[in-house]
Amino acid sequence: MHGPAQAGWLLVALCAATGSYCLLRMRSRVEEQRRAAGGEALMGFGMALMALPAAVLTPPRWAWLGYAAVFGVAALRALWAARRTRHHLHHLVGACAMVYMAVAMTTTPAAHTGHGGGGAPALTGVMLLYFAGYVLWSGVRLLPVAAPVPASVPTLAATEGGGTTVIGWGDRTELAMACRLSMGIAMIAMLLTL
């Protein structure tokens, strides 16, 4: 009993920290990054609430239906946004996974305590494979390479006066990728409890 509660709190902390950083990323000057950060902040905080140990909070059935509705709307928004950029397909899969877990909690409340029994094993397995692949792909993209930094990912920006200015830490693509990696790992942990 002590182990799963501790793991639950670590998962809550990871997801809440990721969601907080994504809120800060919403201050970016790049519109597409702001949109992506908003969806990722919703996902981070939603995962943090869903991961709260059952000893602390056992939401009523209607709360899980609320989760399903919120993330159902997020899935529709991601589906609409996916026509512009491929990254929103990942947001779509993540939102669908959250709907799936919320519906599993509605039908089998014991799944929230980590005793399993919720969800369809085949669908859970497919989602686990997807997120495991995403985590590996994201991790590889974070590995340092000896090649020069491409122009599309500047760490310094030129100013009109000929000088340079440092890009804010909220606009750093490697930090955004690290957040996505964290949420992918957290999603795997949450799916394993179903």
Number of domain units: 1
Give the overall shape: globular
Helix content: 55-70%
Strand order in the largest sheet: 1-2
- Give the oligomeric state: single chain
Terminal Cα span? 17 Å
Structural class: mainly alpha
Order of SSEs, N→C?
Answer: HHHHHEEH
Q: Which regions have little confidence, pLDDT < 50, spanning 5+ residues?
A: none
**Rounded radius of gyration (Å):** 18 Å
Total number of beta strands: 2
What are the main properties of this structure?
mainly alpha; 6 helices; 194 residues
Protein described:
- The chain is mostly helical.
- It has one domain (2-192).
- Helix content is 66%, strand content 3%.
- The chain has six helices and two strands.
- It has helices at 2-25, 31-50, 61-81, 87-107, 121-142, 173-192; strands at 156-158, 164-166.
- Strands 1-2 form a two-stranded antiparallel sheet.
- A hairpin with a 5-residue loop joins strand 1 (156-158) and strand 2.
- It is globular.
- The model has no long low-confidence stretch (mean pLDDT 81).
Summarize the structure.
The chain has 194 residues and is mainly alpha-helical. Helices cover 66% and strands 3% of the residues. Helix 1 runs antiparallel to helix 6 (173-192).
What is the topological layout?
Elements: H1 2-25, H2 31-50, H3 61-81, H4 87-107, H5 121-142, E1 156-158, E2 164-166, H6 173-192
Antiparallel strand pairs: 1-2
Helix pairs in contact: 1-2, 1-6, 2-4, 2-6, 3-4, 5-6
